[in-house]
Amino acid sequence: MGGKKLEIKQKVKIKNRKASHEYEFVEKLVAGISLKGSEIKSIRMQKVSLQDAFCLFIGDELIVRSMHIAPYEMGGYNNHEAKADRKLLLTRRELDKLDKKAKETGFTIIPTQLFINDRGLAKLEIALARGKKLYDKRNDLKEKDQKRELSRMKY
Fold first, then answer.
1. I need a surface site. Which of 16, 24, 86, 123 has the fewest CB within 10 A?
2. What's the rounded Cα separation, in Å, for the pair 126 and 124?
């Protein structure tokens, strides 16, 4: 038939690099995601962006919003929507704790990393975070530059 073969990766680790620059992480948790079949196939092909994603509570459920999972190329008519809301799977105790802390002023819940665990399930690492001020961002950049200079001088 001559159809093209899609490459599926075993080790998938997609990071939200912008998040560590914009936010200070207070606490991290690992949550499962409720996905459709075509979504997990796209994740395994690393066609995901966490750039603008954030989490919010709708009722008693924690939802991740604006996480872009590209439509699966071989999906056909029953393919998924790219930026649909997806439910996160956490225990009731963890959800209550996050909800209580997220209602405090200045805190938000953001996804930091998406990965496939050793059992083949997609997991999302989320962080309870506080936004950084401009001077905090500058200090972080200064520290990175100093570390880079020290590592150059050693060699």
1. 24
2. 6
Cβ partners under 8 Å of residue 94, min gap 6: 29
Give 15-25 pLDDT, tens digit per residue. 998 888 889 99
Q: How far apart are CA 61 and CA 89, in angstroms?
A: 8
Residue 46, by phi and psi: left (phi above 0), alpha (psi -120 to 50) or beta?
Answer: left
Alpha-carbon Rg for the chain, nearest whole angstrom, is 18
3-state secondary structure of 129: strand
Residues of the chain with pLDDT under 70: 1-10, 155
Q: In one letter, which amino acid is 58? A: I
Could you tell me the pTM of the whole model?
0.80
- Residue 2, SS3 per DSSP: coil
Strand, helix or coil at 60? Answer: coil
* CB 25 within 8 Å of CB 112: yes
Go through the domains of the chain in sequence order and give each one's CATH number: 13-154 (2.40.280.10)
